[in-house]
Amino acid sequence: MTELTRVAVATTDRALIDEQFAEADEFAVYDIGAGGPYFLETRVVEHYGRGEHVIEDRRDVALRALADCQALFAAPMAETPRRKLQDVGIQLVDRYAQEPVDAALTTWWRESNA
Fold it and tell me: Where are the alpha helices (DSSP H) in the chain?
């Protein structure tokens, strides 16, 4: 049996990797293996509070939602959110920003498993 790698993608349309981690309201989650990427689900980041009444940082909510993912494909971002991902063991993959999701995931998986 082929081992699968679970990843998340910050995307507005599941076609391109086109959002930053901190800006995404939802993430597309995929399992990738030798047969290519397989879309599992969309995970929505719930907002706890609005405006001055924000109860929790949305990035922390997103980190919990992505806890089972090994990598996050997203547009390049600032150092603070990058560090938050690293601290919880999620690899940021930003070199495929603005590229098609399926092609980027397939290329990354093949390079990572060569």
Answer: 58-65, 79-87, 101-112
State pLDDT tens for residues 13-46.
Answer: 999 999 999 889 899 999 999 999 999 999 998 7
Helices and strands in the chain: count of H runs, count of E runs: 3, 5
pTM: 0.88
* Contacting residues for 86 by C-beta, under 8 A, at least 6 apart: 92
Contact 60, 81 (CB under 8 A): no
Give the chain's domains with CATH numbers. Answer: 5-112 (3.30.420.130)
Q: Hey, CA dihedral for 11, 13, 14, 15, is it positive or negative? A: negative
